[in-house]
Amino acid sequence: LNSGEAGQPRPVRAARGNTLTARSWQTEAALRMFHNNLDPEVAERPDDLVVYGGTGKAARNWASFEAITRELTALRDDETLLVQSGKPVGVMRTHEWAPRVLIANSNLVGDWATWPEFRRLDSLGLTMYGQMTAGSWIYIGTQGILQGTYETFAAIARKRFGGSLRGTITLTAGLGGMGGAQPLAITMNEGVALCVEVDPARAHRRVETRYLDEVADDLDDAVRRVETAKRAGRALSVAVIGNAAQVVPELLRRGVEIDIVTDQTSAHDPLAYLPKGIGLDDWSDYAAKKPDEFTDRARDSMADHVEAMVGFMDAGAEVFDYGNSIRGEAKAGGCERAFDFPGFVPAYIRPMFCEGMGPFRWAALSGDPADIAATDRAILELFPEKESLARWIRMAGERVAFQGLPARICWLGYGERHLAGERFNEMVASGELSAPVVIGRDHLDCGSVASPYRETEAMADGSDAIADWPLLNAMVNTASGASWVSVHHGGGVGIGRSIHAGQVTVADGTPLAGEKISRVLTNDPGMGVIRHVDAGYDEARAVAAERGVTVPMP
Length: 554
Ligand code: NAD
Fold this sequence. Notes:
Blueprint: H1 25-37, E1 50-52, E2 56-57, H2 62-74, E3 79-84, E4 87-93, E5 101-105, H3 115-123, H4 143-160, E6 169-173, H5 182-188, E7 192-197, H6 200-208, E8 214-215, H7 219-232, E9 236-241, H8 244-254, E10 260-261, H9 283-289, H10 291-314, E11 318-319, H11 326-332, H12 344-354, E12 358-364, H13 369-382, H14 387-399, E13 407-412, H15 417-430, E14 437-441, E15 449-450, H16 468-480, E16 484-489, E17 499-507, H17 511-534, H18 538-547
Parallel strand pairs: 3-5, 5-16, 6-7, 6-10, 7-9, 8-9, 10-11
Antiparallel strand pairs: 1-2, 3-4, 12-13, 12-14, 14-17, 15-17, 16-17
The structure holds nicotinamide-adenine-dinucleotide (NAD).
The site of nicotinamide-adenine-dinucleotide has 26 residues, from β7 and α8.
């Protein structure tokens, strides 16, 4: 198959029910999840095979799509399909414990790992951008963003506020694609959110989708509403229309009792942050015509914004950068103390990574939401002591609309994931679930990613850019019995900046699947524990000792 060979876009939807279209559930699962990634309910631009994250694709081109579909349909249980950046390149004889699919996406040799070189090769049809879960066929829609944001705020609640955000106010800005998950994630943690957004249309859209409760008339009204809710211990999210570079300093000046401050404006791109003194209507024109002048003004404004965030920190609030580079831009704009507050990974996520925690997810191949409801109940029964997990599972059941095959995500750690997986496999065997489920995760996990600007920022031993870990992770999952395993480059933060791996394992109800699940779902998060033991984290050392993770040189 040549990469240029023709293939026409067509609507794709995964098969449902418990009748096989491939030779076994192991391959049926890969086929359904591959197709599910391109379901119009799931994919952003299915005709271009783009699933999410800018240009993250599920297959290189439509000819590759047809060939992968064909091969998975025919593949036997002692064969393995090889996928090179979205193109099927070979089928090899292996054995029943081997993965049915091995995937490598977007990888380039170090000195060549730049966007221009990647784009050159992409335009020649030689590679494909796989993001994290687009090219590895385990994307489940926006539930992942909401859950990740929920988990971050739950971690803050545990760290500072006794496990719940009840009676606290979180001040943030930006209600866009990612940022729009903040108000719901905060109210799910029982807190009060005050969200500053310059674009009223964005704020109102969030009310329509029930991610945001109210839009205030003005700042006085907003402050009244959030203070009343805080005193009553009532969860509430309120947006105020305004420019964060003005509103955040004004709230500091007024001495409003804010407990947590962060930001999710698009600060990483100065042309996407509206400087004060420029009207919403003039934004795109000004940015297009005078990008340098606009950038200077945006950085000046971000300096004021971050200066006020530092002021809140000095006043005792919990303040953090939510992965949008606002500290760096503010520093460029003259805010000397911009890096006085931490990024969210070192502050809240890393302690969870030390326990092997990460975004565990599963999807019901039946297509029946009742199967996910049954697994939700199983999770609640398995981990009754985990309060924030229970809150998430209950609220997700009520408020998350499924996209494509019904799926669930929640964060589980070392010693927990395999219990869930084994239970799901038993439920398939007993008929409690109407068809098998797949169990996978995001590549953004405790032991599966090297990404110095995000997941591995500021590692204790300075090992931020060491990329042996994701490679070991992929090999461990291959050796442990995962159903498909992937190694990607450039997901999340872009080409040249990350290397990461993923696995998906099928619970088809057989004893063999149970064996594989118990190894994969132990060893995969185990990589997170040993990665953090090796970097010198005491929390990880304690987890390894308590839960029996063997580390030769702790
Ligand atoms: P987006 O562009 O969809 O939304 C940004 C919002 O900020 C827009 O609604 C815009 O109107 C608003 N805004 C811009 N300037 C403003 C100002 N001065 N005052 C108030 N509001 C203003 O972006 P998004 O997808 O929501 O992402 C937000 C940021 O989070 C990005 O920088 C992104 O890179 C970052 N991000 C973080 C993570 C993470 O791991 N935490 C993951 C992905 C993205």
